[in-house]
């Protein structure tokens, strides 16, 4: 017979506590003109970063490659990749496999807000596919911490 009490004791000793975070208490952190993110979770063990991304209709995310998979859920507005035919609208779920290369643009005048769960890093590419920059769980955590410090905003513990 399987002893559930042993699993419960183990979980209590090594498991992480549950959390409920009010997203309104987390600021929109500027990345560049017309592009912000709101961090929800930084998993330093797996390199997974969960963020809400907001992009105005005048901005874009330059051509980039993902080293891991990406899950996206569109909350507001419309966006697409220049290299694809589909358009993500509010309610759209998208999956991007590791190695996928694309350029994100916003459709219409409404800001796009999308929840992204990103494993690994985004490698920004030039026209010759050379890496010219990257974002990962550590760069985004630092950007969040630096922004909160400069704006005197209390940090949320988002590393778990």
TrEMBL record:
CDD domains assigned to the protein according to its UniProt record, in alphabetical order: cupin_DAD
Gene3D superfamilies to which the protein is assigned, alphabetical: Jelly Rolls
Listed Pfam families: Cupin_7
Domain ChrR-like cupin: 19-116
InterPro entries documented for this protein: ChrR-like_cupin_dom, RmlC-like_jellyroll, RmlC_Cupin_sf
Protein's UniProt name: Cupin domain-containing protein
UniProt organism field: Brevibacillus fluminis
